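pasting for the record
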Amino acid sequence: MVAKRPHSPELLVPNPFIKKRNLEWSIDITGLPYDAASSDSSDGEKAPSLHENEQPPATAAIGAGKASIEHHLDYFSALLAKTTLSPFPSGSPHLSVEDYRTLYETNAGNPRGAHFIIHQHDHPIAGTHYDLRLQINETSSASWAIMYGLPGDPNSFRLNRNATETRIHCLWNHLIETASHATGSLLIWDTGTYTILPYERKGPHDNSQSSTDDDSDSQQLTEQKKLHTAFAARKIRLQLHGARLPSPYVLNLRLTREEDAAGRARSTRVPKTQRRRDAPAAVASRSTRSSAKGKKATDYNTGSDSEPDYTSTPSRRSTGKQRHNSLSDADGEEDDIVDAPAEQLKGDEKNISATERELRELDDEEVRRTNAYPGATNSIGSVHQRRWYLSLDREASGFVKRKKEGRIVWESPGLEPGSSAKPPGKAGSDNNSGNSDEDGNASRPQSTYPFYVRGVEHERSVVTGRLGSQVLQDEGVVGYIGRKGWQAIHK
């Protein structure tokens, strides 16, 4: 048997593929931030963290889901405190940041929470509208877009509003005041808690005993469960306890069978086209082609700064009943659905990779399927773009019906028959000076009846006191031009 050959002596043959200068490299790991923190420096100061010099994400990016943060309450509370006007505009309703933080902490993550918020949203395409959001579980809220804001005059000829269902939002969206070229300005118009009231039965089959039993059972339910029950019945009787709205303030939200069926049919359709949103200059050029002065604005609704836009065409064949129930004089026909995700709003993102585009399309499909934004839970069965009808419950809001000069009027029970209430402040007056009574004294911070929602040029945030233009300025948005044609309801 042949003996095993011994090991050959090591030959120091250089590797021809390795450059000589690469063999002389050395890595100096001293002075790195994470090592400096554990070592003793001569001056005794701790080295700065890696995240100290990082710029915080923009509020618009957080709201659109393009950036994430861990502590929404701390982040947005600091921003609200930083942007609160000082001195606060006189005569404007005011809820301090500390009180708002306490209000949010009490309701967020709580199965008994009943938080609401009304956002004023000046969208460049959808136009000015007001988003009513109601907490439906520990982390989410249902949302309705109301073009002309909430009704505040019991004798108005246009007491009804069209409230269009939008996506389910995360509850932390209640903290946002933001602005961008793609989404316009968003500010907190009012906030507080809500109470679901039993829906009054009217008719010959009204049973007072069964009504009493229902009231006793409802007292054992949380406001969230009451809202779920009323939502499923398509009739919501809602009292809002806010910092701006007068007290008591009660609304009726109802959804007809026809609108329920039509909304469910619309929600199953696949978006046909995508609206292009280019640079601010392109947005400005489109804004100049808006409706002429005096022409009524079409009801364009959207729920948030990152929502798809849905446009509606006025119908000339609406029946009298439809006109009575609709938000404006012309009801909307079937919508042309336009899907414009927030991730595709900026022109510099046209050259994204195919993989990134596919992931975004999957996210959009999931949002359409669940009608909820990422992180939110649609536990109430909300359907996108169903048109509810919202109206002021005059009796529950403290008004009595009286006959005056041959017509029916609604007045406060404190007024003597034949007397008249003090006239409201002039429509369009600046909120900086506050509303004044006949003696010239500033009114109390909380609104009184009648009140009118006057639009983005006059309405201020109840938390920071800012106008929409000031929110745009604070967010560094220059040259923004909103949609024209919005008119307040004063009749």
